[in-house]
């Protein structure tokens, strides 16, 4: 079952944006690649908080098999200011987090600490697409 996406947002010198989307499922066990992120999630539970990773994050270890297989389209950022003209590449294969690892992500809020309520958790935080998109597939 697909649970969430991880977005790696990249900007070039000309301020053009590309996003690589990683689809994440829940499975038994632990995914070691996510540990550096999960370690610091309690420090960034609320919008506007920031911290530094305590250990090295190796992005290539987070990727599924055959990351060269993906879907691509031109869209927008998913958070304000929702800029248009973003090149999205969504990897076809999924990666995973363990059931216990998922609990850390489900404790995150979409608002500042002073505005929190249980209705502001990031769970089920999604929006419909705004316009039809032309998609292409690799390979």
Describe the protein.
By secondary structure, the protein is mostly beta strands. It is 12% helix and 31% strand. It is built from three helices and six strands. It has helices at 35-40, 59-62, 99-105, and strands spanning 2-11, 17-27, 70-76, 84-91, 95-98, 135-137. Strands 1, 2, 3, 4, 5 and 6 form a six-stranded mixed beta sheet that branches. A hairpin with a 7-residue loop joins β3 and β4. The longest helix has 7 residues, at 99-105.
How do the strands and helices of this protein lay out in sequence?
Blueprint: E1 2-11, E2 17-27, H1 35-40, H2 59-62, E3 70-76, E4 84-91, E5 95-98, H3 99-105, E6 135-137
Parallel strand pairs: 2-4, 2-5
Antiparallel strand pairs: 1-2, 3-4, 3-6
Pfam families: Carb_anhydrase
Organism: Larinioides sclopetarius
Enzyme class: lyase
């Amino acid at each position: 079952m697909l649970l969430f996406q991880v977005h790696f947002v990249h900007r070039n010198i000309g301020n053009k944006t590309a996003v690589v989307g990683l689809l994440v499922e829940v499975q038994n066990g632990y995914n070691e690649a996510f540990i550096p992120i999960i370690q610091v999630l309690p420090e960034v539970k609320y919008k506007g908080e920031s911290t530094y990773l305590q250990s090295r994050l190796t992005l290539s270890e987070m990727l599924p098999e055959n990351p060269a297989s993906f879907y691509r389209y031109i869209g927008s950022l998913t958070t304000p200011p929702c800029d248009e003209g973003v090149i999205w590449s969504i990897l076809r294969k999924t990666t995973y987090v363990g059931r216990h690892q998922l609990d850390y992500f489900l404790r995150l809020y979409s608002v500042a600490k002073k505005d929190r309520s249980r209705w502001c958790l990031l769970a089920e935080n999604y929006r419909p697409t705004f316009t039809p998109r032309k998609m292409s597939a690799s390979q």
